[in-house]
Amino acid sequence: MKEVCVILSALCFIRCSCGNKETEIIRLENVIEYYNDGKEKAVHFVIANPPDNRDSLLSLASEHFKAFAPNDTIEKYRYYNHLYFKETGFTPRDYKIEWKEYFNPDYIGEKDWTEYFSHDDIEDHYEDLLILITINPKYNSQRIIFYKKGNRDKEIEQKWKEEQE
């Protein structure tokens, strides 16, 4: 009987310690961030051990966004976006684009387009996208979009910052 209690205690300890992994947000460094001639910026992140519920995820992403993106940086762009992906084997914290030819400024475009479409790009990983926060400074709007398995789940539209008096 004593052995059974020890085994059950050990299993409980292992299960509890595995379930309390720390949440971590990691920036994906090797991803294109500027679009539309530099007027839009998208910064991509992976969340290791993301929260299970929407309110906790929103709180985590919103606090990270505020700490990471100062207002004077955001105001430089027409749209400023943060995309948060769940860390998986398909979208790991060290995600890298393997194909670079398209990003070469000397690229003339005469190569076979199948080469362009055959590379892995972050857009191929939207199945792991959890939340998108986008700011339009000109209209003082902030849109938060939750995703579930690559599809829009819920959307929140609100003011980006309170009006200055």
Structure, described:
The chain is of the alpha+beta class. The chain has one domain (22-159). It is 25% helix and 29% strand. It contains four helices and seven strands. The chain has helices at residues 2-19, 54-68, 71-74, 113-117, and strands spanning 24-27, 34-35, 40-48, 79-86, 129-136, 141-148, 151-159. Strands 1, 2, 3, 4, 5, 6 and 7 form a seven-stranded mixed β-sheet that branches. A hairpin with a 4-residue loop joins strand 5 and strand 6. The longest helix has 18 residues, at 2-19.
Provide a compact summary of the structure:
By secondary structure, this protein is of the alpha+beta class.
Q: How much is the radius of gyration in Å?
A: 20 Å
- In helices, the fraction of residues equals 25-40%
**What is the count of distinct domains?**
1
Terminal Cα span: 72 Å
Given as residue ranges, the uncertain stretches (5+ residues, pLDDT < 50) are 1-18, 100-108
Counting DSSP E segments of at least 2 residues, the number of strands comes to: 7
Structural class, by secondary structure, is alpha+beta
Number of helices: 4
Salient structural properties:
165 residues; seven-stranded mixed beta sheet; 29% strand; disordered N terminus
